[in-house]
């Protein structure tokens, strides 16, 4: 989509339109910091090291039930208070684990049901997990075919592709993955973690392009580099939509290109997407709106980044 088109500008003005996120007024009512109930450190809305809400918000924030387990591998230099990985751990307790590199759990790689989310050379689209079909070209081969003279493998991931994909619903009774690993860091930091042989053994997947609404600027990175919580939300969207499609009543622009679920061969286990994971963006939406009340987004470098 042309970023200057009326439709694109409308989406930029209200990027959460159509998403089903609970009212964040309870966060507005938090006027001062309080001690974390576990570590005792001063926190505003939640503790980003213990992954619990402050006592004032206990039992009042939405909890997201995820159908798979998520592990987030955080770079040791990633600043806890600025990372969105904590959003996931607070909003999906027990289903999201956060580790600081070089700590990486042992994964069972034999059944192929644990995958790494990272746009590496061997990465395949999420839909390939369902179809079992491998793309004719790998992610890097597709990029290489478009690179002008002078580009090399080291700069591949500064570009992305508009892929034409035949989107379909696979009507599966079970998702093809049990656990997904995400890397939480800047792009330059992520390469070192990605190179770890413990992660290299895992199958890799890559997401569709989605403009980030994250306010934290990364110099030299395009707009489609998502924050960790945005990437997790997009991942779950793609998995759910491939498995069971979307509800005809769900209107977020993030899903409109996917087919609507219709009853199919007595598939009572199919639950179309109707915003089940949108509350993962509960804190993100609140902080986004709070920041945009204080600053003009036209002046924020994060929103001036190119999409390519």
Automatic annotation (TrEMBL):
GO cellular component: nucleus
InterPro entries membership: DTW, tRNA_Mod/Golgi_Maint
EC number(s) reported in the record: 2.5.1.25
Role this protein plays: Catalyzes the formation of 3-(3-amino-3-carboxypropyl)uridine (acp3U) at position 20 in the D-loop of several cytoplasmic tRNAs (acp3U(20)).
Compartments where found: Nucleus
Stretch forming the signal peptide: none
Predominant location category: nucleus
Entry's Gene Ontology BP terms: tRNA modification
Reactions that this protein is recorded to catalyse: a uridine in tRNA + S-adenosyl-L-methionine = a 3-[(3S)-3-amino-3-carboxypropyl]uridine in tRNA + S-methyl-5'-thioadenosine + H(+)
Family label: Belongs to the TDD superfamily. DTWD1 family.
GO molecular function: tRNA-uridine aminocarboxypropyltransferase activity
Pfam family, one: DTW
Domain of life from the UniProt record: Eukaryota
Name this polypeptide is given: tRNA-uridine aminocarboxypropyltransferase 1
Lineage: Eukaryota, Metazoa, Ecdysozoa, Arthropoda, Hexapoda
Keywords: Nucleus, S-adenosyl-L-methionine, Transferase, tRNA processing
Residues of the DTW domain: 43-296
